[in-house]
Write a structure and sequence with these properties.
By secondary structure, the protein is mainly alpha-helical. The chain is about 55% helix and about 5% strand.
């Protein structure tokens, strides 16, 4: 099961690396933080079927929770205001 979780985290990392191309932000340089968030995303994908941000609470309403699928709708504003998203997965370049 751990290997499946690692593979899932790797797939998520690749998807997000592609997402970040040309963006004014990047992964947090703290690799442990990035790994923790990616593992949380993989666990939520396995448990709930979507890559919900591990730093946000699910409401149980699929329509509302769509906003917290990584990258969530809040990350750009948070990075612009705070220099990082709430999960600390993405930071300003």
């Amino acid at each position: 099961m751990e290997n499946a979780m690692n593979r899932s985290a790797d797939i998520i990392r690749q998807r997000l690396e592609n997402y970040l191309k040309g963006k004014p932000y990047r992964f947090n340089p703290d690799g442990q933080d990035v790994d923790a968030v990616l593992n949380g995303l993989a666990m939520r994908k396995q448990k709930f079927g979507e890559e919900y941000c591990p730093c946000r609470r699910l409401s149980g309403d699929a329509e509302k929770d769509r906003d917290i699928i990584c990258p969530c709708v809040f990350h750009e504003t948070e990075i612009a205001e705070d220099g990082h998203c709430q999960c600390h997965l993405f930071v300003k370049k």
